[in-house]
Each structure stands twice: as structure tokens, then as C-alpha cells.
Amino acid sequence: MSDAAITNTAEGSYPTGKSGRPSKVAIIGAGAVGSTLAYACVTKGVAREIVLQDIAKEKVEAEALDIAQGIQFTSAGAVSGSDDPEICRGADVIAITAGAKQKPGQSRLDLAGATVGIMEKILPKLVEVAPHAIFLLVANPVDVVTYCARKITGLPDNQVFGSGTVLDTARMRYLVSLETGTATQNIHGYIAGEHGDSEVALWSSCEIGGVPVTQWGRTLDGGIFDQAKRDRIAYDVVRSAYRIIEGKGVTNYAVGLAVQKIISAVLNDEQRVLTISPLLENWHGISDVCMAVPTIVGREGAGRRLELPLTLDERDRLTASAQRLREVARGLGY
Asked: What is the pTM of this model?
């Protein structure tokens, strides 16, 4: 075991892998998102073993060692880091955060070519060492990257999907909670489509404790939860990443927690509905594109895509979002 790996001998309550052996999560990329995700997985006890892989040897070993030296205070078992993809062998879930960095003013789609180029280099080796893993794409533009990753790996639809709008959905629910004074856990609503500028808030199916948000009435500021307020929330969700990047250069904490929740849903076979980004085939007439829709997530990865009732406007905007993503992928040769 390298200096970047420390094992905790205390009993943990982590799930096991498919074969019954201790579970293993591999995270590709030791930047702000990857290292924060590793930290979130360790503190939540998501898996028995967490490994970080990055081409920057000193960086990845240092990040892993920094996390590993605190596992006495968690239920994690082992944390290690390496520049060798071999460290990912036998992983149950591989989360890929490595990609081009989004700069202030850039849209996520601006990153497409550079990030897909990285995927073309790293994915074949990862499939070789962990052919049965669930591949969870996090690098932006996540929907285009996920579609290309499916083509590169040739793996089944359920086995390759993106983190989608799980974070955007959480942002939406957080903002609705601030307006209404209700707990985020009691707000059921989704952001679908591109994880980016063309995403769509599905207000027609959003509920607070069973009450449609369109019928909520008064909010904490004394106003009505009307279309103008809903439009403002949707706009703020889209702008959240830009605002954070302008202020600190990167988004990492909330996305780390969001992706940790997806990994947990897989390893614990939770059958949880999450707005991940799987391949769509005739979802409300939308096909041959990866983008976020409410999807049942469990041990086999991406399961049933739920066809929520949509208004005509929502359907048209999602169709346009899909076309936008499809065009970018085609422009990259996929």
C-alpha cells in the first residue's frame, strides 16, 4: 500500500459490491470536484474503499493522504490515490470528474471538445480494469460527454450515465424552500434537460407536501408564487454556477454532495428517483440524446425513465434542449 493509502480497521456499515466483496468507488480527477467528492464519500461512508486517480501524481497522492488521515473519524475503510488507472481495477462505480475547467463567462457547452478528447484517452483503460462498473460522468458539458462516453465504451445504456441535473434540482428545491418556508425534503419538483443554459424547470409537476406549487398562494414575502416568481427561481438556478465560478473560480461542495448521493443510490440499490442523464429513446418523443430526466437509480445503474406529465411549453423547450445537445455531439463526430 502506498503512502497515500491508510486503512481503518473499525467495522463499517458500507454496502458490498455485486459479488459480495467490499464495495469500491473510483474517482477520476483529483481537482476541486473530484477531491470534494472523495471527501463526501468518505464522510458519508458510501463505500469500503475510495480511490482517486489523476495524471498529476503528487497532487492525487496528496489529496488522498489528506483525506485518509482523517478516516479515524469516519466509517470509511481505505482511501488511496495514484496516477495509474490500475488503482481502479474492480471498482463498482467510477465517477469521472476530469475535464476542461470552466472559466468565468464560459458556458458548459464551450468545454465540449476538450473534455471529450480527455474521455477518448482515459475511458478505454478504465473499461479494461473495471468492465462491470457503473460509469458516472460528472465532467461538463455532462450530457454531451455522457453521450460520447457511451459511444467510446460501447457499454449498455444502464451502465453509463451522467450526473445530469441532480444538483440543479437541489438548487431549485432550495430556492423554493426559501420562498415558502418549507423544508426542502417536502418539495418535489425537477429540473430536466441540459445541465446548463437550456434546462427546464418542470413547474407543472412540482408539489410542496402534495400541494401543486402553482396553487401555493402566499409566500414568506407576502407575494404570490406566480409565474414571475417561478421564472426568477429558474433563472437563478441556471445562473448559480456562473455566480459561484465568478466568486471563487469553481463549484465543488454542492456537486460533491449531489454526486455522492447518486453513488449511494447505486451501491445501496435504493431505487431512488434522480434527474440523472441517461440515453433517451422516445421519452416524450425525444431520442438519441443523453439529458436529464427523472430516472430510477439502483444497483444496475440507470433504470426506468419516468414520463412525467408535461405542458406543451415544457415539452417544446425540452425538445429544443435535446436538439441543442445533439448538435454539439454531432459536431464532435458522435
From this structure: 0.92
Which of 195, 284, 305, 324 is an active site residue? 195
Q: Minimal CA–CA distance to 91: which of 54, 134, 53, 60?
A: 134
Q: Is residue 1 part of a domain?
A: no
Q: Where are the beta strands (DSSP E) in the chain?
A: 6-7, 24-28, 49-53, 78-82, 93-96, 134-137, 160-162, 187-188, 191-192, 200-201, 207-208, 211-212, 272-274, 279-280, 289-290, 295-298, 301-305
In this predicted structure, what is the pLDDT of residue 222?
Answer: 87
Which residue, among 313, 323, 304, has the nearest Cα to 204 in the 3D structure? Answer: 313
Query: Structurally, how many domains does the chain consist of?
Result: 2
243 is in an annotated binding site: no
56 is in an annotated binding site: no
Q: Determine, yes or no, domain membership for 129.
A: yes
Is there a binding annotation on residue 139? Answer: yes
Look up the domain containing 138 and give its range. 6-162
Chain centroid, CA 118 distance in Å: 18
Q: Are 169 and 191 in contact (CB under 8 A)?
A: yes
> For 139-160, how does the pLDDT look when each residue is reduced to its tens digit (9 = 90+)?
999 999 999 999 999 999 999 9
Same domain, residue pair 149 and 272: no
Residues 179 and 275 in one domain: yes
Is 132 among the catalytic positions? no
Domain boundary pick from 112, 138, 162: 162
Spell out the residues 6+ positions from residue 132 whose beta carbon is closer than 8 angstroms to its own. Answer: 18
Q: Does the pLDDT at position 9 exceed 90?
A: no
- Is 252 flagged in the annotation as binding? no
- C-alpha distances (whole Å) from 133 to each of 138, 150, 207 are 15, 13, 35
Among candidate residues 296, 266, 297, 257, the one with its CA nearest the CA of residue 17:
266
Same domain, 200 and 77: no
Asked if residue 279 and residue 151 are part of one domain, the reply reads: no
Based on the domain organization, do 12 and 143 belong to the same domain?
A: yes
Query: Among 112, 105, 48, which Cα is nearest to 80's?
Result: 48
Both 93 and 237 in one domain: the answer is no
